[in-house]
From TrEMBL:
The chain crosses the membrane at residues 12-34, 46-63, 75-94, 106-122, 129-146, 152-173, 185-203, 215-238, 245-262, 268-287. InterPro entries: EamA_dom (IPR000620), EmrE-like (IPR037185). Belongs to the EamA transporter family. Residues 14-145, 157-280 form the EamA domain. GO terms for cellular component: membrane. PANTHER family: ACYL-MALONYL CONDENSING ENZYME-RELATED, SOLUTE CARRIER FAMILY 35 MEMBER G1. It is a multi-pass membrane protein. This is DMT family transporter. Keywords: Membrane, Transmembrane, Transmembrane helix.
Length: 293
């Protein structure tokens, strides 16, 4: 019994470490995407995923099973890729148009969307505390979006939709992990699928790039690959409900990049929103830890 408890705690610790690492990598990705300048969203998404796909394919080639996909994984891989791909497009669109910290925190609404998605995907029934956290977190997001009849609110709404796509996608990552599907397979399938999704749009509206833009998009791709591998591994070690709160460290990293590189200081409403959303995530995590003990 003690060995089982010790194993669970060790898995949670590993999961937490991987989630924080994933947050750092993804915050770097958003920084490099912004630094790549005035390029179409689809073009940025394509190159970001092309690099990640190459890394994933090389990783698979070095395994014994190569590109083998487990029986029954295909529906989950498709849903993870469709939702994750559309979510990424919305997120990249927002990154170029609102503050870096705002774009990141709206994308980090994904755990709350994952709570809802888990009902349908994993047949997990949320607790009362989960529902309270979801409602308050969405109220907090309103402070960040600042609903009004202007284009900035639409950009922020796109960021929130990015969080929706990511939340559903991560739920399918968890389901695939439970099914025993390998992390590199999930990353490779998603990256190649998203490249195919973006390719026609990129060809139709391709913008020539400077060497600096090439460099930043390549770096964004490598950072994204690091983030994808770590987040995929993290949710295999522990349920998202137990470790996803640490994903909010991405907002801290993004805030540092925003101030250091772009001089972005979040306004008071955004800060209130950050406190509410992150506070809800922390409260929910503490509650879950207490009730499971």
């Amino acid at each position: 019994m003690r060995d089982n408890i010790s194993t669970v705690k060790n898995n949670h610790a590993i999961g937490i470490g991987l989630v924080i690492a994933d947050s750092f990598f993804f915050s770097l990705m958003t920084l490099f995407v912004r630094l790549s300048g005035d390029l179409p969203t689809m073009q940025k998404c394509f190159f970001r995923n092309a690099i990640a796909a190459v890394v994933a394919v090389i990783t698979l080639l070095r395994t014994d099973e190569k590109f083998h996909i487990k029986k029954g994984s295909m529906p989950g891989l498709l849903m993870r890729s469709i939702c994750g791909g559309l979510g990424m497009i919305c997120n990249f669109y927002a990154i170029d148009r609102i503050g870096l910290a705002d774009a990141n925190i709206l994308n980090k609404m994904s755990p709350f969307f994952a709570i809802i998605a888990s009902i349908f995907v994993l047949k997990e029934i949320p607790k009362k505390a989960d529902w309270i956290a979801v409602i308050i977190a969405f109220a907090g997001s309103i402070f960040i979006i600042k609903p009004s009849f202007n284009v900035v609110s639409l950009y922020s709404l796109a960021g929130l939709l990015g969080g929706l796509g990511a939340g559903i996608a991560y739920t399918y990552v968890r389901k695939l992990g439970q099914h025993g599907e390998r992390g590199p397979v999930i990353v490779a399938f998603f990256s190649i699928f998203t490249c195919c999704l973006c390719l026609p749009f990129m060809i139709a509206d391709f913008h020539p790039m400077t060497w600096q833009q090439w460099l930043f998009l390549i770096l964004a791709g490598f950072a994204a690959a690091g983030g994808q591998f770590t987040v995929t591994a993290a949710y295999k070690f522990a349920p998202a409900k137990n470790i996803s709160v640490f994903d909010y460290s991405q907002v801290i990293f993004a805030s540092i990049w925003g101030v250091a590189f772009f001089g972005e200081i979040p306004d008071m409403y955004s800060i209130i929103g950050y406190v509410i959303v992150i506070g809800c995530a922390v409260f929910r995590w503490l509650y879950l830890m207490k009730t499971e003990d």
